[in-house]
Sequence to fold (324 residues):
Amino acid sequence: MKNVSILVPETAVIEAVADPHYMFKAVNQFLLAMGKEPLFNVQLVAINKEVKLENSLFTVHIDKQLKDVQQTDLIFIPAISGDMTTALGLNKELVPWIAEQYNKGAEVASLCIGAFLLASTGLLNGKKCSSHWNAANEFRQMFPLVELVDGSIITEENGIYSSGGANSYWNLLLYLVEKYTDRDTAILASKYFAVDIDRKSQSAFMLFKGQKNHDDELILLAQEFIETNYADKIAVDMLAGKFAIGRRSFERRFKKATGNTVVEYMQRVKIEAAKRSFESSRKNINEVMFDVGYTDTKAFRTLFKKITGLTPIEYRNKYNKQVA
Fold:
């Protein structure tokens, strides 16, 4: 029997508590129906006997208090909500327990922005991690020693798992079901919960929001210029000259401030504009390509798929009902 401990932190997202509980309880039922023994002892765990969530709209009654769980096999850290600094402060007592259990041999999985709480343990330092794409800039600022993988649905390293944004954590749940049981049981669970079992990327859902939470005024001006003039052909030398700074110094400051090279930033802005056009207009691929400043069809398609995980046609068909 595998002990599965689902943490219930203060400010937890209720769905991210209930869904792993539902999934692993259901898998026990699948196993029973197949004439097998249930595999998972699923428990809700917290510091106190009950946790009020979403301004007391929900009250979660836990199965075991943290002090009573001496050893477990798998820990789920659900998404937390609100200001991250405040949320981490409210849940600081969970941190040593998570680290202690991991050092005793437990595996640990964070769901969505539960990655912030996982990262605060230090267990992710020097390791890869997934989280919600919308929290990427804040995560990198708070945890510079962690390698956040953009667009990834699941990361796994040394018994530590993390998932991408929002409902993509269902893919991590299925991944762990398969690991602890077998492929057939995971497929059964995927059909029961209507989840695509092998989705690997959240890139198609990502919105590019350039990192602007920095104090380099010159780079902010450069970012605004790129975003206003994305349809034009902008050379790095031209940008550096416009802002009266040497190219090497400009590139170094831009990368430090935004996390992207100048060329990467221009590409991301162009592709973001192309995505919006595909979502809202009836323009064909070439029209959109020209609108955002590309003339090479192959280069545009290659870059678009690299950033979004979909071809331009696939993206348009997925998000624009006018052309469906």
Notes: The chain has a mean pLDDT of 89. DSSP finds 14 helices and eleven strands in the chain. The domain at 2-203 is CATH 3.40.50.880 (Rossmann fold).
